[in-house]
Amino acid sequence: MQPNSVFITAFESVCCAGLNSESLFEAICTHQSGIGSYDGYVKDKTVALGKVPSRVSLETLLHRVCETVRIQRGIEDFYDTLLVVGSSVGGMQRTEEIFFRDHSYAQVDPKRHIIHTIASSLHEVYGFKDDISFSTACTSSANALGYAYEVIQKGVYQRALVVGFDTLSSTTVLGFDALGVLSTQACCPFDEKRQGMNVSEGIAVLLLENEPVQGCVQLKGVGYSSDAHHMAQPSAHGEGAIKAMQNALECEGVLPHEVDYINAHGTGTLANDHSEACAIEALFGSRPFVSSTKSITGHTLGAAGALEAIICVLALQKQVLPPNTFLKTPENSTLRFVYELLSHPLRYVLSNSLAFGGNNISLLFGVFDEG
């Protein structure tokens, strides 16, 4: 039996650089970073973070985004739909707010702290057929997309709603500060003078189906690898990233020279950028265009895979290359970095997500040929 094709038929997002996907993509194309400077997260230190510019809670915005996707697709409900959530923070910020207010955990509801709290909140409103949640650090929503891809391809479900969601938690910010990888300004991935990363919050929702609609993009393949090189550091030469990208290409039988653009994980940390650049160079040479969009969005952690999937879908729909921002002097002189918005024919696009523990995911997107 031939596997089903998988199509991205609707999507929407919210992040520090835009309250919808179109405004986000415009910010990327015009180098308008959403990163700001904030005190109060790290003692005696100002750090650059990505906060959503809204007085409405992220949970409220999440419901609005899901409703936008439902209306965009023109369906009445999600009763026949699998909900797949990817998050690294879950309800941690709510727990923090209660603890900082009361200086006690007495009023904390454990069920509102765990990763599954996001799915539970959405299930109460929409009554999905079933749900599952993934928490694999920075690959969480990329893993969610991979799972949705597999169950649709195998005919288990015809439709899945993938949600990437993470809030700006103090625990997370302090954790990355303890690792010494926070930047005091908007990050500049792949640059020789990069300082580090920007922790951010964001929401990204994509509807995946086994039947196409006009203007949709195909999710062509998903590649996984788990190199377990180190708890927090990637291998210097990117062996895990190479394997993930190879596995994604093999899903569709795509050759490396056929990939037109790579949306890199590109966090702005010394170790990550060097490792990923080595991996891309080893597998692709200087053939595909490369950019990281995290200088605009920051690193939305568990939401990053889904958010950057939307960026890749828009790049394919508009046939343009999203540029790097703040990249002046690349550490790697071989890669074909994009500096300004370019119109360019795109057929295949890769998006990388690389996380702690050496768990790596690469997503392959392609133009749907209606002929």
From TrEMBL:
Q: Does the keyword Transferase apply?
A: yes
Every copy of the Ketosynthase family 3 (KS3) domain together lies at 1-367
Name one molecular function that GO assigns to this entry.
Answer: 3-oxoacyl-[acyl-carrier-protein] synthase activity
Q: Transmembrane segments in this chain: where?
A: none
Q: Which residues form a coiled coil?
A: none
SUPFAM superfamilies, per database record: Thiolase-like
Show the InterPro entries listed in the entry.
Answer: Beta-ketoacyl_synthase (IPR000794), Ketoacyl_synth_C (IPR014031), Ketoacyl_synth_N (IPR014030), PKS_Beta-ketoAc_synthase_dom (IPR020841), Thiolase-like (IPR016039)
Example of a GO biological process term: fatty acid biosynthetic process
Q: Which UniProt keywords apply?
A: Transferase
Checking Pfam families in the record gives: ketoacyl-synt (PF00109), Ketoacyl-synt_C (PF02801)
One GO CC annotation, please?
cytosol
Record flagged with keyword Protein transport = no
To which protein family does this belong? Belongs to the thiolase-like superfamily. Beta-ketoacyl-ACP synthases family.
What is the protein name given in its UniProt record? 3-oxoacyl-(Acyl-carrier-protein) synthase
Q: Which organism is it from?
A: Sulfurospirillum barnesii (strain ATCC 700032 / DSM 10660 / SES-3)
Q: What is the lineage of its organism?
A: Bacteria, Pseudomonadati, Campylobacterota, Epsilonproteobacteria, Campylobacterales
